[in-house]
Amino acid sequence: MLISFKFSNYKSFKDEVEFSMEPLTNNGEVDNIIETGYKKSPVVYRTSAIFGANASGKSSFIHAVSYFQGLMEVSYLKRFNEQMEVPAYKLSEQNKNSTFEFEFIKNQTAYRYFVELNDNGIVKEEAYYTELEEDKREKCLFKRTSEDFNSPYGLDKEIAKQTIKTRLLVSELVNNRNNQDQHILDIYNWIMDIDILSIDYKDVLKDKILSSKSNLQKKAEFLRKADIPITKLIVNRDGLYSTHKSEDGQEITFDFMLEESDGTQMLLCLSEDIFWVLDKGSVLFIDELDNSLHPHLVKYLVDLFNSPQTNPKGAQLIFTSHAHYLMDGEHLTRDQIWFTSKENGYSSELYSLSDFKQIKRRKGTFYNEYMYGIFGAVPHINGD
Predict the structure, then answer these.
(1) How far is residue 254 from each of residues 11, 239, 257, 258, 269, measured CA to CA in Å?
(2) Which of 20, 136, 144, 178 has the highest CB neighbour count under 10 A?
(3) 3-state SS, residue 99
(4) What is the C-alpha separation between 15 and 349, in angstroms, rounded?
(5) How many other β-carbons are positioned within 10 Å of the β-carbon of residue 360?
(6) 109-133 burial, b for 16+ CB within 10 Å, e for fewer?
(7) Cα-to-chain-centroid distance, residue 301
(8) Each residue of 321-332: pLDDT tens digit?
């Protein structure tokens, strides 16, 4: 489960920002949480949302997660002089490195994993762990810089020195060195298990739906629970089909991609990843969750993750959205609402509704204040 994610100097984000799944206020009973067993971060939320105007940095936040996951996936293949191609902030004359840090829990262990890099390679890579059952202090797994390597834990120093600067050590150990250390595998697998759906996910997932014959009955039930009266789904070599009951009780077949609505198609596309994440108890990032979906369907998806009954393994949903109606105190409380904005006109900022200390209530509706611009993160439209 994710505790926090920090990053800096990436796309529209110049300075370091921190996103947290922890409750940021102590204001009575906390809803929609997962108990972690970690003394430092005892609970985290199941869902959080990021709101903001177009071009404010919402998608860049999702891309930051995606970029780092891609780096973990392929950096073991990079050559010595190959560029890292970091999409750094471009609107100032700065020469800073980019940084990424995840804090998360896997297999009863809390991890903190930090990477600093630039186009030429990895400048710093550090990993720490805390064993929850023993409630011990954080320990260093390894610290790596371009000049030195230190591992109180006992990782092989020679292998670390042989790892070229364009490769993450964790990726190198898992993919090229067949390292079976549990902590290294936990860090690698947790990052690789993050599921990310960017704005074009509908087109990407259509092929997956058409090629998949699994869970068709479960997916049809998923659609029916969303008040879409499909009796069954059929996949054959000609494509994907749905059936509906006619007025006289006959089953009528529809070409799913041609005759079902965009919202129905989108919901089915999302189901593939939602089922996978709920089953694994992992983390799902979605850019613009409300794309083509009715507000009731958006709330339905958020409720799937909010409820311990439908989400018993503690999966987490983090999404960007313009669906301000979710700021109702039921689907999202104060600590689950985040904003991106470019108040200076250049770089993106990321901040929580909890930063507004004058807002005393934790629950209740916040969308009126948001629409009036009290929290920023709304477009400033020039009528001239």
Answers:
(1) 43, 11, 9, 8, 17
(2) 144
(3) strand
(4) 8
(5) 10
(6) bbbbbbbbbbeebbbebbbbbbebe
(7) 15
(8) 888 888 877 788
Taking residues 7-26, report their average pLDDT.
Answer: 92
Helix (H) or strand (E) holding 165: none
145: number of Cβ within 10 Å: 14
Say if CB 278 and CB 294 are below 8 A apart: no
Lowest mean pLDDT among 19-33, 53-67, 246-260: 19-33
Burial of 309 (0-12, 13-18, 19+ CB in 10 A): exposed
Helix (H) and strand (E) counts in the chain:
10, 18
Under a CB-based contact definition with an 8 Å cutoff, are residues 260 and 254 in contact?
yes
Runs of H (alpha helix) within 123-261: 157-162, 169-175, 182-192, 201-211, 216-225, 256-259
Highest mean pLDDT among 18-27, 36-45, 180-189, 216-225: 180-189
pLDDT tens by residue, 119-147: 999 999 999 999 998 767 899 999 999 89
DSSP 129: E
The better pLDDT of the pair 167, 271 is held by: 167
DSSP 80: T
Dihedrals phi, psi of 121, to nearest 5 degrees = 150, -170
User: What values do phi and psi take at 39, rounded to 5?
Assistant: -60, -40
DSSP classification of residue 13: B
**pTM for this model (two decimals):** 0.90
Alpha helices in the chain (DSSP H): 58-74, 157-162, 169-175, 182-192, 201-211, 216-225, 256-259, 262-280, 295-306, 367-371
Helix H, strand E, coil C: the string for 304-354 is HHHCCCCCCCCCEEEEEECCHHHCCCCCCCHHHEEEEECCCCCCCEEEEHH
Rounded distance, CA 231 to CA 251, Å? Answer: 8
Closest CA to 46 of 332, 348, 339: 332
Select from 118, 145, 121 the least CA-distant residue to 8: 118
